[in-house]
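Sample entry (212 residues):
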Amino acid sequence: MTTDSTIAVFGGTGRTGHPTLRKLLDAGFRVRAQARNPADIPMEHERLAVIKGSFNDALSVAEVIEGADAVVNLVGHVKDSEKDLLTTGLGYVIYDMDKRGLKRLVNLTGAGVPHPEDQPKFVDKAFRLVMGTFFKDVIHDATESSFLLRASDLDYTNVRAPRLTEGAAKGTLKEGYVGQINSSLTREDLAAFLVDVLQNDRYIRDEPAVSN
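Predicted structure, serialized as tokens:
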């Protein structure tokens, strides 16, 4: 992906979204970012277009993707989210990308989403049990949306992140699958990883887990 490309970003208003937008712009990309409330993206840049809309609105999703060369999706569940937010929104993204002939998608999900290459340790199994018990709908939606990616023809990278923390980047990453990573990751390091994966076309049709 060349740095003069245009990237459509969903979920840019969140705590991971802000540093990711900043790093995309710093890398030279043009960005079209969706926001329910544009004021939630408190930055201005000549290469940043903020488009008011919702991830579960097909027309809004299509508007954001128009003119883009690739898509980055960072949408996650928040309080009062629809149970099928990720599945619905990502379904719209995949449909619109297929219609436009776009291939490259970087998607963010949680390390609780299983993958056949995982070799979870006891702590990983305990974490998944807790998530599956107390956040059953969230895990179900994230897992179903990952199935959509696997069934698509896209050149996707489904990045699976553990517990996210605030603070400065540590600059060191462990990459692999669940069982090979640690339990936390700074949002700054996650943002850098997402942009690196996009720029360098890493992990095509793969679902890496990453941590500090």
